[in-house]
Amino acid sequence: MRRFVGALYRTKIAFAAALLLSFVAFVAVAGPFLAPHDPNRVNVLARFVPPVWAERGSPEHLLGTDSLGRDTFSRLILGARVSLLVGLAAVAIGGLLGTTLGLIAGYFGGRVDSTIMRLVDIQLAFPGILLALTVLALLGRSLGNLILVLGIVQWAQYARLVRGHVLSVRQMEYVEGAAALGARHARIVLRHILPNSTAPIIVIGSFSVATTILAESALSFLGLGVPPTVPTWGGMLSEGRDHLVRAWWLATFPGLAIAATVLSINLLGDWLRDYLDPNLKTVL
Length: 284
Description:
CATH class: Mainly Alpha
Structural class: mainly alpha
Strand content: under 5%
Number of helices: 13
CATH superfamily: MetI-like
CATH architecture: Orthogonal Bundle
Largest sheet: none
CATH topology: MetI-like fold
Radius of gyration: 22 Å
Helix content: 55-70%
Number of strands: 0
Distance between the termini: 15 Å
């Protein structure tokens, strides 16, 4: 851990990205305590109040209000919780399912491998966002359905990646030695193969979090994400698109939040990819 933190600190861009993500995570966890107002409280007398530094701005609403008089700052804080929760939970579901099937396919091979890979091909033949739109339209709008759909959509990329890595690892001498000593299949996979396949899983998982946050924002923007009563960055963008001239802040701040969070995750993912590459560890 000391070497990891030291290498991260020496890479200033990745360290800054990690600090920003830590701040976003803190805001997401402590959101209910940090938000100065109820994010769903309607006040028609305070519609379209600009940010505090603008003309007619009010210290009561630091980032202004929307068309219903709801506090933009409070909604932005609560939106961080939804974005990170969806991103992390969906990646956990997709990664767990895809990694399990990839391990099974790569280790056992034969018909099992062929069956799982055909399922992967079928999954990848459908555009992910289109599949998510279809399933959400059938199941209905809820946070649980959104996480489940986005998790299932991305399992195939994990399965293909892990299966290819297992095919190369299972030929190593230590795996053959464990099998010759009579080790069970489960022990070989969990003790010898999986630990040596975690690096690519971590890297693809970090990038998938950013992709999932963008997908959640896109679905919320289209009105197929979580219910309207749950503040999300994508939903705030959708609500602000009709008032870009009159109330620019409604779309600007959630857009900046999405861009900064996704950019930070991508920068940190790039650094993780280099750090976990044995050929580049001497450089880092």
